[in-house]
Amino acid sequence: MTEKKKEVLLQIKGLRIEGYSDDKWTEIVHGVDLTLHRGEVMGLIGESGAGKSTIGLAAMGFARDGCRISGGSVEFDGMELTTTPERDRRALRGSRIAYVAQSAAASFNPAHRLIDQHTETPTHYRIMKRMESQEDAMQLYERLRLPNPQEIGFRYPHQVSGGQLQRAMTAMAMACRPDLIIFDEPTTALDVTTQIEVLLAIRDIVEQFNTAAIYITHDLAVVAQMADTIKVLLKGNEVEESDTRSMLANPREDYTKSLWAVRSFQRDQKTRPTGDVAPVVSVQNVDAAYGKTKVLDNVSFDIHAGMTVAVVGESGSGKSTTARCITGLLPPTKGKVLFKGEELPASYKSRSKEQLRQAQMIYQMADTALNPKVRICDIIGRPAQFYSGLKGGELKSRVDELLDMIELEPSKYYYRYPTELSGGQKQRIGIARALAANPTFIICDEVTSALDQLVAEGILKLLDRLQKELNLAYMFITHDLATVRSIADEVVVMKQGQVVEQGPKDEMFTPPHHPYTDLLLSSVPEMDPDWLSRVVDERGVDNIGEAADTSA
Amino acid sequence: MGDVLDIIVKRLALGAVTLLVISIIIFGMVELLPGDVAQAILGQGATAENLAALRARLGLGDPAIVRYFDWLGGAVLGDFGRSAVTDTPVGDLIGPRFANTLFLACYAAVIAVPLAITLGVIVALLRNTIFDRVANVATLTAISSPEFFLGYILILYLSVKTGYFPAIAKLSSDMTFLDLLHRTFLPALTMVLVVVAHMMRMTRAAIINLLASPYIEMARVKGMPAWKVIVKHALPNAWAPIINVIALNLAYLITGVVLVEFVFVYPGIGQLLVDSVTKRDFPIVQACCLIFAATFILLNLAADVLSILTNPRLRHKK
Amino acid sequence: MNYFVIGYYALLIGASCLAAFYGKKSAFLLLFSLTLVSFIVGIIGGETWLWNITIAAGVIALCAGTAYAFREFLVIVTPYETSKALAKAPLTASFGLFVIMTYLIAGVFAPVIAPFGEAEVISQSYAPADENMLMGADQLGRDLFSRLVYGARNTVGLAFIATTLAFLAGTIAGLLAATRGGWFDQAMGRLADVIMSIPSLIFALLMLSIFGTNLSVLVIIVAIIYSPRVFRLTRAVAGNIVVMDYIEAARLRGEGMWYLVRKEILPNSTAPLIAEFGLEFCFVFLLIAGLSFLGLGIQPPTADWGSMVRDNATLISFGEITPLIPAAAIALLTVAVNFVVDWMLYRSSGLKE
After folding, report:
1. Cα–Cα distance between A160 and A154 in angstroms, integer?
2. Which of C245, C258, C273 has the highest number of chain A CBs within 10 A, making it the mutation to test binding with A?
């Protein structure tokens, strides 16, 4: 990519952006430089709050309500956007710089058909006539491998699936053949098997039209497939920038290295105890339904003491529903749940205090899992008080002990409220609350997916240590296979309410196995720039993602 | 379209059931009276003959169920029985007065609805400016004031001190239409003030809510000019909230009219209701209540049906 | 043209220029718009209207000044957390607080403040104001000012009791519906729908005609009419909290419903519920005032603002503002409460707008 000398398309110098909150302006981007050549794809990567999206929009000379560009320059193809009148800047948007938003479902206007929204910009700028643009849209749809390209444009957004909408939005961005497209986390909300289709479609079309792009994401493996160069951001500052291959092979800064290191955590795999030991939890032939819709179909698996069973699958596969059946929030319509060989009552309401104490739960969103109006000491103290009847000094020393266990300084956090803590700290409090009951079994529902990678790793290590110390059994619900690799002993793969395959982890990661497991595993992006091309070669362009899924 | 029809039919059925339940409440409430209706109307000093005569006239001999269906059957055909006090048919009393009330409500609506929506949109576009804040304070003040306060202020300034408009909205049969508009201007204006304030606030909130949605941002980053963003992207999605705002306020116009009619001595159904409550003339009270409740429910029903019809998600099913 | 008109425009235009010069955009826009409006109004209505505008501006300035001073006073006397919130409060909110406090004092200390009893006839009917009577006498020769002060106790007190009753009934039902769900939730929802589909004033009139107009009946009727509104709001607020994971965690722990409501749900719904109480109070207050105005609410000789308006209404045709005074008292309190509620809603919604 770098062999021929290229023309500079976008030049950002010392960009500063302020955001309005608590009645004052605070700087959120502190002087970022960025140079983008024609036809080049740059990946902007960073954790939440790094200012990626804000910088992406600023490249269009656009600031969201409540944000303003306070310094620096944005020069697009020789035009200084920070001083250009709004009218001229607006004329660039859509025609020469286009934007693809994170949630296509929310960003398409529900009141108009896709094709009407597609043709809006070209006809507004009189680049194309309505019919021409419509023809062109169909061709773009075809190039993006949308099903029924002749017809799909005439549907309303709610009639089209998420992955298809995201591609339709990419087509819409292409409508005027812009010089630059900003992709703002276009695949974050999608399942892996859908993500791979969209990634491929985006990569191909950007290449075909030689469009320059800024690709914003928090996922290193994704950006490795898409970008020529990568820029790493942290809290509104640039950390480093280099071309993709050298960045992956040889990160310079400590922060960047730490991002890479996350994926390296892995612990030894444990095996089931030999002999006739009853598993801690045994799910046997469970069916469940929401109203009349059946969501679980004959689900069975065992979890043994001291072991971690990862339940993986895409959204709607029934992972969380299985957890709800085990906890008794959703009584199964058929089958039973055994705890240490004893059958549990179907509903949590009829379980004894002792049965409830043994199984605890840690949630995905620490924000909604902790009551914002209750102090930390009461959040953690309540289960101890409720189950063990601890009071006064005893209770306090128990809470201190628990805070020590989760590596938070007791004297500092004892009287705080959850809102004063960071995401990772909140998740630790959630763990402490579960531990306070002295459980033997904990359900971890996507506990790391809302966290930034570094923090997530800390949580995984903590959970691992606690498991060893307290001989806990974990049921680990996740859609992230990297997490599965690092801590699972056994894996259960679910799809549409059924268990597709289960077994020890090392077997699951070595072929051969069920086609769906295969598809799921191979669709997870890897930290290798050639991964996407390799998968395409293996599976063939038309057999990627959803198409492969239905043929399987 | 099948789905939409289904939803609408269900909504209409729900409306009919609600109306039925309300008719039972209105009828049943009177049955709760200590003693009976005749006793309540004539008071403690009534003689036995008078009571018996009134009971016979009101048909109190039959069981409540029979009387309820008689009453409901008559009401559907516009026959609400006879006044317990004057013995005139209730329908004759209510008919012309209901027409007057409807006229006043329409008069106010014709002025208020376009004015309020325009102002609401303008204020939404000027949000967080000084005009927005002034409008906020002004509308809050208007909706906080009782109708009779606004009414008397208008009478004082536009009638007593300046003589532009008559303070009392007397109607006679030989008036020209312009005369009519002139005479009823002050009561109409009072209602307009309250309704405009309400509608402005609601329209503003609806529009601002809409402008925060991601597809509006998308339209803006697609380079669409401000007017096109509003007209093409915001408005088609704004119908449902706006229809609801209008319906809610029209319902207010019809029912909240009681106090305004009282202030301006306007011969509408509201004044009749207040008079009848004082005289404890139950057939009239029941009839008025049923009419008000029915109007209220019908307007809400119409709003719901229209919102369903304008919802693209429901109109074009999967 | 006289000196007043010249001075009027000179002041406005001068002030606009100053505002523009010092870059005060909002102030300039406001002043200059007022100038333009004054041109039009002045041409149509003449000098008297300009006088009216001047008086109105003066009154508003006075209110703003009071509000500003009161806010600074509150910031100093209240503890840290509260004063931090108050320091950012808009003037309208502190004006509202000031008015509410004044009414509260008037209501509580009515017998001390009022120079005469509420039913005491001391003069001829409609006697004009003199050194004895601040605002003159009413249709029976009772002191208007004293009755106004007692009205703060009677009218506001009654509305407060009715609101509290409606609020308690609505909140308890709403919390129960949200936590229990199932048929109870369904049944309460339907009931609320039916009651709310009868216009409130009409429903009140119907019930008053049947049960007669005494105070306890009035309070119960108002509570029945307005509790469905509270129920709906509480149900919605609690419904959003009930789906939170921390509630699920507490349920799975085996906690009882009373604990859930008291420790987990209520602490998170106080802000919207307090705001709703304010709004509800306005509705109830206006309804009771309206009923009294129609002669169907609080009965004589108890001093009450709604019936005072009605009793003195004839004076309006002589250009007297007497009936407007109790009406203004009603409006002022509702406005004040609405101002405070508006601020609280804005605060709890964060910076959404």
Report:
1. 10
2. C245
Q: Which residue has the higher pLDDT, B31 or C13?
A: C13
**Interface contact B312-A103, CB threshold 8 A:** no
- Taking CB atoms and an 8 Å limit, are B155 and C316 in contact across chains? yes
Q: What is the mean pLDDT of each run of 10 residues along chain A (552 residues)?
A: 66 87 81 87 84 86 84 86 85 88 87 90 87 89 86 87 86 89 86 85 87 88 87 86 84 79 70 80 90 87 91 86 91 90 89 91 89 90 90 90 90 88 89 92 88 83 91 90 85 89 84 79 81 81 58 38
CA of C295 to nearest chain B CA: how many angstroms apart? Answer: 8
| pLDDT > 70 fraction of chain C, expressed in percent and rounded | 98
Question: Are the Cβ atoms of A156 and B313 closer than 8 angstroms?
Answer: yes
Q: Which residues of A touch C87 (CB under 8 A)?
A: none
Q: Which of B130, B160, B262 has its CB closest to that of C317?
A: B160
pLDDT reported for residue A546: 54
The confidence score (pLDDT) of residue A153 equals 87
Q: Do C197 and B22 touch (CB under 8 A)?
A: yes
SS3 A185: coil
CATH, range A1-96+179-260: 3.40.50.300
B34 pLDDT band (50/70/90 cuts)?
low
**Hey, which residues does A476 pair with through a beta bridge?**
A310, A444
Chain B residues with beta carbon closer than 8 angstroms to that of A99: 218, 221-222
Report the SS3 class of residue A362: strand
In 3-state terms, chain B is what percent helix, strand and coil (to 5)?
Answer: 80, 0, 20
Q: Which of B207, B218, B239, B307 to mutate to test the interface with A (most CBs of A within 10 A)?
A: B218
Please check whether residue C194 touches B, CB under 8 A: yes
With beta carbons under 8 A apart, name residues in chain C contacting A369.
Answer: 244-246, 249
* Subunit partners of chain A (3 or more CB pairs within 8 A): B, C
Q: Taking the model in full, what pTM does it have? A: 0.85
Higher pLDDT, B81 or C96: C96
Q: Looking at domain A281-522, does it have CATH number 3.40.50.300?
A: yes
Q: Which of C206, C289, C296 sits opposite B29 (nearest CB)?
A: C206
| Predicted pLDDT at C84 | 81
The set of chains that have 3 or more CB pairs under 8 A with C is A, B
- Ranking A506-515, C11-20, C25-34 by mean pLDDT, the lowest is A506-515
Nearest to B214 among A57, A103, A112 (CB): A103
Domain boundaries along the sequence of chain A: 1-96+179-260, 105-177, 281-522
Helices and strands (DSSP H and E) totals, chain C = 15, 0
**Interface confidence (ipTM) of the complex:** 0.86
Q: What is the 3-state secondary structure (H, E, C) of A282-326?
A: EEEEEEEEECCEEEEEEEEEEECCCCEEEEECCCCCCHHHHHHHH
pLDDT at C8 over 90: no
Q: Which domains are delineated in chain B?
A: 98-282 (1.10.3720.10)
Q: Evaluate whether A440 touches A305 at the Cβ level (below 8 Å).
A: yes
Model confidence at B136: pLDDT above 60:
yes
Strand bridging mode A41-45 / A229-234: parallel
Q: What is the largest CA-CA distance in chain A?
A: 79
Q: Domain spans of chain C?
A: 3-82, 144-349
CA A126 – CA A493 distance, rounded (Å): 52
Q: Which residues contact A265 (CB under 8 A, 6 or more apart)?
A: A457, A460, A461, A486
Class of domain C144-349: mainly alpha
| Residues of A with Cβ-Cβ distance to B213 under 8 angstroms | 106
Nearest to B223 among A94, A107, A159 (CB): A94
Q: How far is B218 from chain A (nearest CA, A)?
A: 6
